[in-house]
Fold:
Amino acid sequence: MKALFVILVGLCCVAPVQRAFAQPSDVEAMLILASNEPAPLDRRLERVDYVLRPLLRFETYRLLGQGSVLFSGSGSASIALGDGHVVNLAGGGKGRVEVTWLRGNDRLLSTSVTLKKGKPTILGGVPQGEGRLIVTLMVK
Amino acid sequence: MNLGRQLKWWSRRRDGELAPHRAARLDRDGLRPAVVDEAETVWKGLGDHLRNQAIPTPPAEVMWNDVRREIRRHAPEHWAEQHLKRPWDWATTTAIAIFMVLLGFFSLRISMPPEAHATEPRVAWVDAELPGATAMVYEDEQSGAVVIWMVTPADAPADGGKS
Structure:
């Protein structure tokens, strides 16, 4: 009985520690072209479209590429999004992630941000044609 | 072999307990004096007599009480009496409990997602690395999204960008 109690309490206490240190998260990135040219809704963007529209107010969002990676928060990872666009992730301490958005060898944007599960991080504003390129980062 | 030993051996043979080599010796030597026959008659009569005796059986309730008493006698002591009868056992248990609570508290703090720190902004810094570009940061409370938007010199006021 006593041993069972100790084991149960121990498990309750140790489980969060293990979760905190060892659980990698699936980070998904999307490269999106936002413009005001009329086009049908890109169904592949349903998960982020509802966030993008009220915030950015472009007419059209088109998915150009996407990728995902398992990221532990303390290491580093890269997500290739096509057309030479790459997003690098690196643990920045205190739960922050240093995100670098590159096109080929050119760095477009660097930031240190806290990625939240289910709450997208939107990087954008890179001109492309008549529109702007956007990268969304989602922790699943 | 003296008579006493012969009787002993025949008695064991009757009970099936005589070693084979001794049984062979009895057969080989033909050792069976008349007194053995008499003894066997007595042994048989005694066995019949005992088998015919009524064996007194206690009532079922008495037997059941005996069983229960034996179960109680062999059962382990009560947990508390067995494990916590000494003061230091209580102290150890209390120390373990306090340790577990503290461990749980600190592990909860460690495992808290960064979003728990509501006062900290999600974006620590931004470098807009396009020539002449600057960056705007906006955190939307409703959706929880954070927008990091580059404003480039090419941006026109009516380009539909970040509003």
About this structure: Residues 2-139 of chain A form one domain.
